[in-house]
Amino acid sequence: MIAISPRQLEVFAAIVDAGSVRAAAGQLGLSQPAASMALAELERLLGTPLFDRGRQRLRLNERGRALLPRAREIVERLRELGTLAGDAPAGTLAVGASNTVGNYLVGDLLGEFIAAQPQVKVRLRVANSAQVLAGVLDFRLDVGCIEGPLEHAEVERIDWRRDELKVCVRADDPLARRRRLRADDLRGRRWILRETGSATRSLFEEAGRGALGPLDVALELGQSEAIKQAVIAGLGIACLPAVAIGDAIANGRLVALHTPFLALERRLALLVHRTRWRGATLRAFLGSLGKRRESKD
């Protein structure tokens, strides 16, 4: 039997999460030499490196990716055994959220869980949906929350709630005064869109395919807030999540157009790797959202 210690596995997982030995050592209350030694001993016992090393950066290699979910499961199981209840949430939860969720729905996503489990440290990473899915696949994220239809055979997708996109224009745009629009009214307009990989952009392009024809994309931006400000500045029109433009509509800077010819409703979903062990912390998080989760149509 290989004499691997829980501490070595804990250090390994912490290095993956923190991105460096130094940062992981600080999180665990160890000296950097002690953390380095624990990693070196783990790699010696396994007979293989777990990271590709170059230019003072550690990149998880294939063997490291295979070990990571098992190491986290062992660490979490031992942590639970150490609690009085034997099954209490503890430790760190790594959550990924798409830009829409992370910037506008973070309270709905995390609020109830953080209030109920103050002893758990939550790490939130905000990125586009494709990046969140990638984080779940390589186990850097325990759970992700995305908009749009992204799926993967290795990931379970759990419906959370509905969301809707809206085509919006500046308040003084001629289209803002039109009660009834046709798809042709949007042809030839200059569009400001999210970057490739964004679920918001993917849904809009799918909905507009055929109805709107080729799009004149004047500007690509990585944040809905930046796009909103660009539309207000008169640089073009956009399709944005309804939750992102509510304030600008309320104060009269933007108008949301009525576009029944575009199917712009979507579902926000939780992503969990199918082989990811669902310990007390992850179960508690999913449970906090499950109380308000919408049933599937």
Automatic annotation (TrEMBL):
Report TM segments.
none
Show the InterPro entries listed in the entry.
LysR_HTH_N (IPR000847), LysR_subst-bd (IPR005119), WH-like_DNA-bd_sf (IPR036388), WH_DNA-bd_sf (IPR036390)
Q: Which UniProt keywords apply?
A: DNA-binding, Transcription, Transcription regulation
**Entry's Gene Ontology molecular function annotations:** DNA-binding transcription factor activity; transcription cis-regulatory region binding
| Signal sequence range | none
Q: Which SUPFAM superfamilies does the UniProt record give?
A: Periplasmic binding protein-like II, Winged helix' DNA-binding domain
The yes or no answer to whether the keyword Transcription is present is yes
Q: Which family does it belong to?
A: Belongs to the LysR transcriptional regulatory family.
Name by which UniProt lists this protein: DNA-binding transcriptional LysR family regulator
Supply the source organism for this entry. Dokdonella fugitiva
